Amino acid sequence: MRGPDKNPLAKLRIPCLMRLMASDGRNEAQEPEAKPAATMVIMHRDPGGGAPKLLMMERVRTMAFAGGAAVFPGGKVDPADFDFAQALDEDVTLGLDSDEVAHRLAVIRETVEEAGLALGLKGVDDPADCAKARAALHEQVPLADVCAEFGWTPDIAQLVPWARWRPPAFENTPRVFDTRFYLVDAGDTQLNAVVDATENKKLFWASAQETLDLAEERKVKIIFPTRRNLERLAQFGSFAEAAEHARQFPVRTVLTYIDDRPEGKFLSIPDGHGYPVIAEPLGAAMRG
């Protein structure tokens, strides 16, 4: 869904300037302070031969961010994640900077905490057999100590960078997150994920299109970034296809903006990030 091009000099509105800067990669100056976060798109092979199943978590309605919405597992990057990233050897970090490694460690930790699945780790026999590690993380034991106790090593190469979303300055509120998305191939292993019953009230496995259909039927709610990513993921029939697509679109920060059109205001994102749909009527968009 794309609106007509507009003259950038006609109205010097901040959102329009953001759109132009984001489209050519010069968006850093417009980005507000935001909390670093990461989320994991777990792709499980459908034994029936259909599109991959994705793990979705339905958040408790009372949560300040995305309350009642279905989201991917994930959460904030903690200081201990940055400490762990700096302590790891280069053969584990693969030469990536510590900031990127910390985000991948955070999403590994959050997925254990929220879903009871130990993914993105070497030395794990059964990803679903991690109850003790999960309990330790819930007791605020750092992931570094948990890995040492259970003989695990982060395998950050399993996490394929998919996207990075961050609201622009005009939405700079205490709940602004700079979120990196990663794809993980769960293969056909039986993954008996168990909801943490704290921030999330239930979980379910569904293809990207199935979740979009549930949203259309008003059986689940999805926020704007989740909807756009589900639409993008729905194009692919396998993890390999999605990962190849991700390589064709190197991650650049996606900044939302308000687009004034003759038919009304639309919440939009710049083109060129790999998304088949880039706008939604503002009144219909759930923004978190």
Total count of domains: 1
Report the order of strands and helices: HEEEEHHHEHHEEEEHHHEEEE
Given the helix and strand composition, which structural class is it? alpha+beta
User: Radius of gyration, Cα only, in angstroms?
Assistant: 19 Å
What is the CATH architecture descriptor? Alpha-Beta Complex
Give the strand content. 15-25%
**Average pLDDT taken over every residue:** 84
**Could you name the CATH class?**
Alpha Beta
The CATH homologous superfamily corresponds to: Nucleoside Triphosphate Pyrophosphohydrolase
Quaternary structure state of the chains depicted: single chain
Poorly predicted tracts of residues: 1-29
Amino-to-carboxy terminus distance = 22 Å
Largest sheet: 8 strands, mixed
- The beta-strand count equals 13
Shape: globular
Quote the CATH topology: Nucleoside Triphosphate Pyrophosphohydrolase
Helical fraction: 25-40%
Helix count?
9
Summary tags:
288 residues, disordered N terminus, 9 helices, Nucleoside Triphosphate Pyrophosphohydrolase, alpha+beta, 3-stranded antiparallel sheet
